[in-house]
Here is the input.
Amino acid sequence: MEGQRLRVVVAWGLGLFAAALLWINRAPLSSAATPFVLAVFLAYLLNPLVDFFESRRIPRVLGIFMIYLAAGALIALGITYTIPRILVEINKLSERLPEFTQLFTQVLADMQERFQRANLPPVFQNLIEQNIQRTQDRLLLVLDHTVDALLETLGRVFVALLTPILAFYILKDVDVLKRTITNLMPGKHRRKLLAWLSKIDGTLGSWIRGQLLIAFMVGVLSTIGLSLIRLEFAVLLGVLAGMLDVIPYFGPIIGGIPPVIVGLLVSPAMGLKALVVIIVVQQIESNLITPQILGHSVGLHPLLVIFALLLGGELGGLAGLVLSVPVAAMIKATLEHIAAGD
Here is the structure.
């Protein structure tokens, strides 16, 4: 017993020492660690499906191959029909960016001129002019960096290829990994730690998978709707709307702004059509898709969710917005676990 306890203490000590070294050298190691972190996340998402196949007496490795085969077919479909279209639209956007910038600048100048004619008190007029100028500067900065950011994201092929390979080995040996982690837990606290991890998994697992599925469906519906009204860059804007939809509350609004802006730069009628498409997609999401996929939420009050989003956005930008609600849910599950005395 004493020897096993000593091994656990040594293992935890070495683990904490290694974690400290990784944290100190996190900048140069971040690129190397990225595929491993993504692989763990991918394995976490797919493990329930692999367990389902295994419960139907399908060998675990065969179940993983079946899932990968289905996912590969979807990815091949996307590469065949979607990726080339996105690349074409990115190229077209980069060519028309100066034109859009000039049009948007003219729209803001017209707004500023109208406010100056409205005979508002000087204080309000100055405030409006300052906000219009600030908005113009920020949007021009975003437009300048949008194409580079998209091309950089699409260029990370190595990580995209390595992640599923690492996830395969994690899924294949997940029982061994679970036993190893369990054995490293102190014996007298093992049951409490396992109960805590189970509570967090129950709170977050289905919610994360559901949110990703909802975001995918929103991206598809937005692309179809924007294509039907013949809006330029429909695929690119639809994919962007789906990606931003993973942010609760604010995501659908943020994702709906670019299609409306692009539509308004074409004509007021096209801007109105784009707005109608976004509203219809959001209504379908909130009233049909979300209740069916996410029968329950993470159990957080809307005010707490909004506070978590604001705090996460302030501390971590876009990544903070995406991670804020899961982190808040984990904190809530932990506090409930402590309060229950499990």
